[in-house]
Amino acid sequence: MKKTILTGIRPTGNLHLGHYFGACQNWLKLQNDYNFFLEIADVQALTDNFDNPEKVRKNVKELTIDILSTGINPKNVHLFIQSKIPEIAELTVFYSNLVTMARLYRNPTVKTEIAQKKAIFGNEGESVTYGFVGYPVSQAADITTFQGELIPVGEDQLPLIEQCREIVRKFNRIYGETLKEPEALLSPTPRIKGLDGNEKMGKSLGNAIYLADSEETITKKVMNAKTDTKKIKKDDPANPDVCMVYYYHKLVKNENIETVCKECKGGNRGCVQCKKELIQKLNEFLVPIREKRAYYLEHPEEVKRILDEGTIAAKEKAQETMKTVRNSMNINYEEL
Ligand code: SF4
Fold it and tell me: Residue 43 has what pLDDT?
């Protein structure tokens, strides 16, 4: 029996290289060996975008196409939309009785995100919603609705998995052994830095390269990437370890990486030449992704069919779990 993997991604924008190297690349390795559910988390996306559902809706299709363009095989991966599986919402309600508000506020991921909201929105950050504070609970429901056993995550999401495990243990203690306790499967790639050197790559930071970017856009972005600021003239020696161009050369596995490093350190390489080489490598890297992307953009009926089939498989598993959950909780009213 293959183990079950559940992972999800919020449809709030296109995939960028941070997503690709931080998550998708790992999914591609795992997709053949597991029973793999990949959730387009539209309900979770609404916690931050409840006043802009159009944005979420538009991005569901965009994101699905991006995911498929990375090489995810819909024959191996059940790709589905979260809101099409109402059993997740039902389980979220049951779980909400098993978690205290104090515990939710102590969750380091929630704490960090509340602090970030306050930093960005000032006093508006005070009006943190119930849905936002409660999202670890709905995430626990996402995982356990599909009896997810392994959950691919970044290090910053480990507290969410721990919270899920606590909920599962409490549920099983109260209602009897019903749910599987998931384990985190830590991403082998740490967080990918932005072109500006920021530790995080993101749309709001304007430092990301998207899988959907054209050659022209990539040229513009790379030409503005942060290099070693101490290098003024073409033949100044520089430190590649503080340069984002070098960082991306390594990321796309430039086979000439040792030469790049040596020439940079020796003052035998100009930044413009180095950036042009990176642009070429990035475009080579993106060729197969662009080809698949173009195919799915031309075949929206196939994208719809993939999501429909993924949803049928997800629904089947969710109904099976909920039947067991309701039996355990003694709320099965098929007979009175
Ligand atoms: Fe960066 Fe290349 Fe310039 Fe060195 S030569 S600082 S690696 S862009």
Answer: 96
Give backbone dihedrals phi and psi of 197, rounded to 5 degrees, phi first.
95, -5
Question: How far is ligand 1, taken at its centre, from the CA of residue 23, in Å?
Answer: 27
What pLDDT score was predicted for residue 124? 54
Backbone φ, ψ for residue 64 (5° rounding): -60, -45
Record the pTM: 0.91
Q: Using CA atoms, how far apart are residues 96 and 170, in angstroms rounded to an integer? A: 12
Cα–ligand 1 centroid distance for 275 (angstroms): 8
Homologous superfamily in CATH for domain 215-293 = Tyrosyl-Transfer RNA Synthetase (1.10.240.10)
- Positions of the chain with pLDDT under 50: none
Q: Which CATH number fits domain 4-192+300-329: 3.40.50.11540, 3.40.190.10, 3.30.70.360, 3.40.50.620?
A: 3.40.50.620
Report CA-CA distances (Å) from 239 to 67, 204, 252. Answer: 35, 28, 19
